[in-house]
Every structure is written in C-alpha cells, then in structure tokens.
Description:
The structure holds two protein chains of two kinds. Helices cover 36% and strands 27% of the residues of chain A. By secondary structure, chain A is of the alpha+beta class. Chain A: The chain crosses the membrane at residues 34-51, 296-317.
Amino acid sequence: MPPLCSTSPTVHPGRQVLQICVVIQFLRRTWRQFIGLCIYLLVCSFIWSPVVDSASSNFNSGNDRTVHPIKKFVMQSYFDRHRELHDLVFDNFVSQEVNVGLFQVLPENHDFVPRLSVLKRNLIGEGSHRHVSTLLKFQSQQSQSSSQLLSSSCDLIVIERLPTGVFADPFELQRLVQRGVFNDVDVFGDTNLELPSFLSKRSAVEIHLAVDPNKLLEPTDINIELPLHARYQPLNESGYSTVELGMPDILVRCSTMEKSENQNCFFKVTNNDADVQYGADVIWRIPSGKKAHSDLVFAITFSAALLSTLVIVLSSLEYSKTRRVGNDSKQS
Amino acid sequence: MRSLEFTSLLLFSAIFRVILIIYGEWQDAHMEVNYTDVDYLVFSDAASLMASGDSPYKRTTYRYSPLLAFLLIPNSLIHRSWGKFIFSASDLLVGYFIHFILQQRKVPKKLSNYCVMTWLFNPFTFTIGTRGNCEPVVCAMILWIIICLMKGNVLQSAFWYGLIVHFRIYPIIYAIPMVLILDPDFFPSDQKPILKNWTAAQAERLHDGNYLYTLHNLFKCIFTRNRLIFGLVSAVVFFLFTGLSYYLYGWEFLHEALLYHLTRTDPRHNFSIYFYHIYLHYGYDISVMEKLISFLPQFMVQLVLIFYFAKDLPFCLFAQTVAFVAFNKVITAQYFVWFFCLLPLILPWSKMKLKWNGMLCILSWIGAQIHWLMWGYLLEFKGKNVFFELWVASLVFHAANVNVLTMVIRHHRFSSFFLGLKDAKSKNVAKHE
C-alpha cells in the first residue's frame, strides 16, 4: 500500500485524497504564519472588545414582566393604586399593609418585632456605576410567638426608593437573582433608562431575601449590595450634581400554611434604637454639564462642521481638477 | 493554489469566529463584564416575545425591524447563540462577496487576498459579529446589491435595496448614486453591463466634463426603464415590509423602528461632535434655524461626493458612508462596520502606500478614538467632570475622520465602475485591429 501523501509521480491516489494532501502540505509550510496570526487575532480581540463595548454601551433594559403574581411584590400593590412614587403616600401605604396583615397570623398580644442594632449604609465605587451597600444587624430578643414563627417561611423585603438622579438596571438585577445573590428582585416606577434625570420620575427597587425567622431574633449580619447607575443630571454651575440616597424600608414577610391556606403577614423592621451609621458617601456626586459652556460649544461645534464640509468640498474639487489637468498633459 | 489561499483564509476566519463565540459564552457565565453586547440581549428578548405571539416592541429599546426578531426566533428554540452564528456567517459572507467582486474586476489575486484580509481580520469586524451585533447582515446585503448591479439584475438589486432600507434606514443615502449608475450608457437595453477591470495604469482617460455629462444625462432621461424599475420596485418592497410590520405591530413599530432613528438626539456621550451641544440644550425647543444648520453640512457633503464620484460606485458609497458617520448626531462604534465592508472594494485603486501615508491614516484614526475613550473612561468610571475635554476629543476624532476621507480621496485612482457603450465599442475596435 503506497503512503497516503507520497509525492512520487508513479503513485496516483484518488482526487479527494490528492486535494487533502495538497492542503496538508500547504498547512505544513504555513503553520508558523497561522500560529502568529492566531496570537495577533486573540490579542486584538481582547484589546478591541472593551473599545467596542464602552463606546456602544447604553443602559438597555426594560421591565418586561407585565404581570406579577398577585401580591408577590409590595411595590406592585403600591403602583397598582398610585401612579408615582411619593414619600408620604408610600409611608402611609406601608403602615397600612403591615397593620392589615399583622392580625391574621399572630394573636393580638404578639411581641414579634424585629429590631436592628446596627444599620450601616455605604456607597461603594467610583463614577457612574456604583453599589449601595446596606449592613443590617438584628438585635437578639426573646419572643413568645417564636414557635409559630418556626413553621413559617420568611422573606426579608428591602425597598429602596431611588431619587430621580439614579436608576437600577432590571436585567443586571435578574442576573444577580440567577446567581443566587437575591431570592427575587424587581424595579418599579420609571424604568426608562435613557432619559436624563430632569425628565424622569422616581423608581423603587424591591429586593427579596429568604431568611430563617430564628435568625431575626439573634444577632445576625445581613449585607445587601445593590448596583446602581447615574442618570444624566441637569446642568449645574459647579459641574457636579449631588444625589442623596435615603434609608431603605425593611419589612419581613412570613407566610405559614394555616388550614391549607397560605397566609402572609408583614412586620416592619424598626430601627428606632438602632445605631444608624451613614457612610460619608451615601451622597453621590455626579458630573453634570455647565451652562456656561453653552454658547462656546454651540459656536465651535457648528463652525467645525462647516469647516470640515468646506475641506471635503475643496478636496473633491481639487481632485477633479488634477484629473483633468493630468489628462490634458497626457493628451498633449 | 491561489484560490486555495482564499478558501483557507475563509476557513480559518470561520474557525476563529466559532472559537470567539464559544469564548464569549464562557466569559458571560464566569466574569462580571459580559462579552456579549447588550443589544444582543435586547434582540433575543424581542425574538422570544415574538415567538410567543407578542409584539417584539414590548421589549424597551428594541428599535429594529420585526424581521430581525423573526430571524432570531431560534434563539429560544435551539440555542441562545443562534443569532451570533447567523451574524458571524454573514460576516464570512461579506468576505466572500468582497473576494467575488474583486475577482470579477480582475484584481490580481495577491492584492485581492490582502484586501479581503482587511475585512476578515479586522478586529472591529470579528468582534462585532461574535458579540451579537446585527451589522454584518446589513453589510452582506449591501454587497449583494452591488453584485446584482454588476450582473445587470436590476430587479433583484431593487428588491434587496427596498428591504435593506426597511431594515436599517441609513442606506437611503445610496439611493442617488445607485439611480445614477443605471445610466443607459452603462445599461443598454437588454444587455448586461460591462465591468471596468482593474489596471495598474495611473489614471483613467476621461471625457471632458465627466460629471456634467452624467448630470445632463440624468435630466434628459431620468425615466429610463432601469431607473424606473429600480425606483418603483425598491419603493414597493420598502412600503410592503413597512406596511406589513405596521399592520402587525401598529404605532409602536413606526415609532420605535422608524421615527426614533430619524429624530434621534441622544444627550449621552458618544463620538459625535454634537453630543455636548445636545446635552446642554436638552429639553429646550430647537429652533428651525438650528435644525437647518445641523442638517446642512451632512446634506452638502453627501451631494458633493455623489456629484463627483457616482460613476465609481464602490468609492462613492465608501466616501458617503464615512462622511455620513462622521457628521451624524450620534456615533457608536458599530457604525464603523458600515464603511469597513466597503474599504476592501476601493483599496486596489488607492495610490496610498502603507508606508507611511497609510500607517498615518490608521494610527491617527485609532489614536483619536483611544484619546476619546480615555476621557470617556474618566467621565463614566471615575466620575470626573470632563465633559468639555470629552467634547474636544470628539472634535479631534471628527478631524481625524475628515483627514482620512480627504487623504483617501486624494490618493484614489478614479475608475468608472462600468464601461460606457462608446468605451466598450472603442475597446472592441482596438482589439480587432
């Protein structure tokens, strides 16, 4: 049997085999160039992907869940009744929800009130994309209702009411849910992520964390980090706008199976006697345009556009002239 | 052996793109920063909405034709990377079309291969397709339209032109040069046009008043059979697809897919020189005068380029696209692919040598971009107020774009795309003698 890729002229393998031989010989000769090309391309793709990304990135997202399971999210109930987020209205709403739910499960003289000993807020990061971190430390306390609680499944609900200057990306938050950081999360209110802050309304983020009810009566640490992004701010003489993040509303919702019915009740976590610590930078400084630049920018932008138009027109004109001149000198 | 070289180039590019797609999936799953473009997630969501019978426009920021969502329906049925494979395949198809066009115009194989490599191995292009951006599909369609014109298939080119304007509005700028090229001198009745081949000669013999001749001809016989077919068929196709989409998805489609692009003013920072001006005046009413001033440079440049270069169709399209992107109100990196796909078609006719004019063009363009990106990084990731400096960087980038365009014009060897009847006859006469 003759060797497959022999170059002896007396051997005549089939046409396909001949083609494969030619390819293999070609590859043998050029493999070094191919390896070099591979390395070049891999390096380029690493260099260029952030270039392409940062220039074409925009905060594309949307709230595509139009139907929520009934009462799954507290904020959904709020926005079912109200069009916009107003602090006073919201405070009333929360106390209503909490009071209504409270008496369904526990006796009137229950004493389960989760209390915080420490509440720390911090803004981590730089630039337009940061994280707001909330550290909760519960107080240890005895509760007579603890036996009933043991049979419940509880959710820690953290509601962040965001000012118009910042927003949360629902899709980024969904990825966190997929990675198991939160149980569930959703954004309510104004979810248009492209408009500047002076044309936007407020939004709120509701985060659900599964929590063992016993842990709420012991000194436990819970740390929540929420990624936020800055909107374009209104113009400011100083060049920076400040956005202040308020305190989150923290609720606990426990549901028990009572007479084969799912019953929910809410508890508002109080922090009246908690050691509330604000990190120095829960105040976010976001760059904003300076009105003083308006006229100069207008003048120079449009002058530059007209100048470059002139340059292109003149180049085309000159080009056509040189072609004609060149031709004349050729023909003469 | 030479054609094998192109086939092996194509094969190698294909394998490389597959590897990049697989790597992209890995990076998405394991790293904070995604490889996949955010737009791809938008398309996928819109496609899955369409698959379940809903309107794709329920997905906010989906601003494309429903055809794109339709193309990506298998994303939810087969695998979420289906779209990326489609886009990378279009990417490779563009490479093949470039090779085909250059071969038809008898460009020497070595030169042709180098030109194809400027597309297949351009970092912008292979990252765009593998990251899930739909621009390669648009580029493939444009090149196919050029091939149809080359073969004399006016009907087919009109169909694809109507479709692509429905898909992405910007090719409307190519309408005038395409109508101009359907000159009865180039497209005599019932005859295929004759392509003008590549020559190593320095300059093309041209008749005096070359352009006025075209314009004069245009006014004399604007209603030739070919021009009428092209105009009517492309308009019918455009309205057909637009009408169908409107019937299916109503005002949402019209607003998101068409009107948004025509009236888009995004105040967020991008390469355009207008971004800071738009931000500083956002929310205020724009006077008619101001609208006119911002539209005028773009309009004038397009008209001038068409007037001088329409006969050399690929060059005209390239120059128009570069100018269109440079003067646009919003510029994002994906727009660069629009002229990268036309660049290999004009390179064989450029007198510019890589050393050092070519290198200067490339480096100044890339350098201006990196300069802008540096200020953009300081603004977005470090929170410093550098709006003014970023705007100056966008002016510098605009200057680099204009510089590249004028350099390319100056070093171009004008070559008519088709041979006119008279030229063809004189060539035949010369052959027989």
